[in-house]
Amino acid sequence: MIGKTALVTGGGSGIGRSAAIAFGAAGANVVVADVDEAGGEETAALIKDAGGKAIFVPADVSRSNDVESMVEATIAAYGGLNCAFNNAGIQGALDQTADCTEENWDRITGINLKGVWLSMKYEITHMLKNGGGAIVNNSSNFGLVGSNGMPAYSAAKHGVIGLTKTAALEYAQSGIRVNAVCPGPVQTPLVDKILSAQPDADSIIDSIKEREPIGRFGQPEEIATAVVWLCSPEASFVVGAILPVDGGFVAQ
Fold it and tell me: Which of 34, 99, 220, 235 is most buried (CB neighbours < 10 A)?
């Protein structure tokens, strides 16, 4: 990773922040992109404080102009783009299929699925001109199985998997490897905030742990390790892989 450039969307917190820090620790130049400017700047500062190289670029991945500018800023800063982790995503409101509003559907799919497609569109365009690269998309364990009360989220994350496999086949011979990770429940500030707002938070947390074969939540660093490996030369023969990093959830 030394001297390579890695772009991380949704890098202002959680899994994205951990991945950005891991890329920096591996010697990559890191571009942190997020709608949360304070969080993104903080992530970049953490990387630089540890001796790495990083910049922050504000970007809403659901907007084509933002994504194009994000990739252009990456190239302008470091001369190219070698790795990308398309991680930005939201949970959105929880409702069953018939109760999900059109606004909620459009917002979730616009960020979680369209945002991944837009990111790949501009990343791949650059990589094709510059000898290839590696892309990892963030799906979910709920991209592999259904989830009661999360129709838009689950549909979007299933879509990320289909998009990943398709792009992997299209660009493998062009030197671009495309893979995806599927995290299970991960202890991030966002998840902590959502759970703490529930009146029965403790019972929900216990229920989640009971459903996990490993018996606990994952940590953001555990997902980051898989992402950096998938982008590394050590994973040079890994193409179109959909990697659950979920404590065994989908093995059940």
Answer: 34
Residue-by-residue pLDDT tens, the chain, 252 positions: 899 999 999 999 999 999 999 999 999 999 999 999 999 999 999 999 999 999 999 999 999 999 999 999 999 999 999 999 999 999 999 999 999 999 999 999 999 999 999 999 999 999 999 999 999 999 999 999 999 999 999 999 999 999 999 999 999 999 999 999 999 999 988 777 777 777 887 888 888 999 999 999 999 999 999 999 999 999 999 999 999 999 999 999
Q: Does residue 21 form part of some domain?
A: yes
For residue 171, indicate whether it is catalytic.
Answer: no
Q: 164: closest CA among 181, 141, 183?
A: 181
**Does residue 174 fall inside a structural domain?**
yes
If DSSP codes are grouped into helix, strand and coil, which group holds residue 82? coil
> Quick check: helix, strand or coil at residue 53?
strand
- Which residue range(s) make up the domain with 29? 5-183+218-244
CATH code assigned at 72: 3.40.50.720
Residue 249 in domain = no
Q: How far apart are CA 62 and CA 42, in angstroms?
A: 22
Among the listed residues 78, 122, 153, 171, the single catalytic one is 153
